[in-house]
Amino acid sequence: MENERALLSYLKGKYSTEVWLQRDKFSVKDALKVLLLDQLKASLGAESDSSSFHIRLTYTKASDEAQGASETTHESKRRKTDAENGSNCISENSFEKVYEPCIFSVHCNRMPIFFSGRYFKYSRNVSQSRWIIDDERMGEASVEEILGGNILPACLGDSYKFHAAGREDIDVRMLGSGRPFLIEVQNSRQCPSEQSLKEVEEKINNSEKKLVGVKDLKCIGSQCWAMMREGEAEKQKQYVALVWISRPLEEKDFNSVSSLKELKILQKTPVRVLHRRSPLDREKIIHWMKIEKIKGHAHYFLLHLCTQAGTYIKEFVHGDLGRTTPSMGSILGCRAEIIQLDVTDVKMGDS
User: Fold this and answer.
1) How many Å apart are CA 34 and CA 24, to the nearest integer?
2) What tens digit of pLDDT does each residue of 280-317 get?
3) Are residues 190 and 155 in contact, defined by beta-carbon separation less than 8 angstroms?
4) Of the candidates 91, 24, 102, which has an alpha carbon nearest to the alpha carbon of residue 58?
5) What is the pLDDT of residues 26-55, one digit of tens each?
6) Is the peptide bond before 180 cis (omega within 30 degrees of 0)?
7) Any idea which residues carry the catalytic annotation?
8) Whole-angstrom distance, CA of residue 33 vs CA of residue 87
9) How does DSSP assign 127-179, residue by residue?
10) Looking at residue 329, what is its pLDDT?
11) Are 169 and 104 in contact (CB under 8 A)?
12) Are 289 and 301 in contact (CB under 8 A)?
């Protein structure tokens, strides 16, 4: 391939105006495939087709191995960049006949397999993903580790990646119908049966601490990733919040809140996340709200609401020093504070 790049560079310099040089050419790589493929198929007793199982054959010159060990990082990067750019800076030695045997290695791996489902988070001290600050764990555990740590052994895989349709804060529970998620398992050596996945579900759901739950766990195709991302952009989320206000709740408050439909609010990036998020103005929609009275507690109530994805609920309640307008406090004309928050439903697309 190195010689091929050098030859093409020479031809383009000498015959740049020739039409035949612009046509598609049969590369050395493709020629090698044709020569090797039938022999490999016969030796392995297998057909060649698109598959999730890949075999990588690597041929390396011994002199290249020695060069790689001795060259500096800068030299290595430069050589790699030259190769990627098809540089014609080819040494004369590359045209010499090779007398030494090459080093041959075989590496087998499988394309990632995906598992989908919905998870529940019952604790206010469990983060969604593993959260470490200055070598200290934040929270008791994470949804990612509990789900991935149980699914990975069933696949005999190397590692996993966790993806979810949105996220909740560590002190927010995920209840109701659960939040959609994907687990991507790398280099799985077996695909668990439906029965095995049921057992994984039961193990998570029947754990002693009951920090996290899961339902509808199943193995699916890679197209699910695009589907989840498409649905995530359109999703609606439902919440219930325990709210305190500085004055007693009045009868007129019930109607003044429930009558607000498709309410547009403007939210500046919350103060609590300004250190890691860009300072932006975001317009969001509160689709509907209703107040549920708590008997014997005039200053407390439950606020049920359905919002557009990406709405900051805590800031909508207390106003975030005027950075969210309108807010529950401004609607009721008093100070409002959020005590607890639960997610009760995540609707994806048309679901």
Assistant:
1) 17
2) 999 999 999 999 999 999 999 999 999 998 899 999 99
3) yes
4) 102
5) 777 888 888 888 888 888 888 877 778 888
6) no
7) 169
8) 24
9) ESS--EETTEE-SSEEHHHHHHHHHHHHHT-SEEEEEESS---TT-EEEEEEE
10) 94
11) no
12) no
